[in-house]
Amino acid sequence: MVKLLHRPILDDETYSYRAFDGHLVLYHTENRSLRGRVSLYNSITYEVMLCSDLMLHYRMNSGHAFDLAERRIISLLNTPLQGVR
Predict the structure, then answer these.
(1) What is the CA radius of gyration of the chain?
(2) Domain spans of the chain?
(3) From the CB of residue 85, how many other CB atoms can be counted at a distance below 10 Å?
(4) 3-class SS at 17?
């Protein structure tokens, strides 16, 4: 299942303001499901259900950003993410 999200991934951004210019990829658990989010050029965000029942009893959150200008990958481990708590 793929769903279009109408909110940015990064917490300090709004629908009309994007602080980061690059690609964002992350995964997180929600209840017992594993979901991924991707935003190419940090414009439109898609959420993909990767697994509906992981049978995990702890949270998993991880993400990475690809900085287009510097051509490097940045970990989003300590970055506040919207809707991923």
Answers:
(1) 13
(2) 2-75
(3) 9
(4) coil
DSSP labels, 51-77: ES----SS--EEEEEEETTTTEEEE-T
**pTM for the structure as a whole:** 0.79
Q: What's the CA gap between 84 and 51, in Å, rounded? A: 17
Residue 66 token pair: 């690809």
Per-residue pLDDT tens over the stretch 25-67? 999 888 888 999 999 999 889 999 999 988 877 788 889 999 9
Close Cβ partners of 43 (under 8 Å, ≥ 6 residues apart): 18
Task: With beta carbons less than 8 A apart as the criterion, state whether 53 and 66 touch.
Answer: no
* Per-position b or e across 56-83, b if 16+ CB within 10 A of its CB: eeeeeeebebbeeeeeeeeebeebebbe
**The two three-digit tokens of residue 54, written as one number:** 């992981």
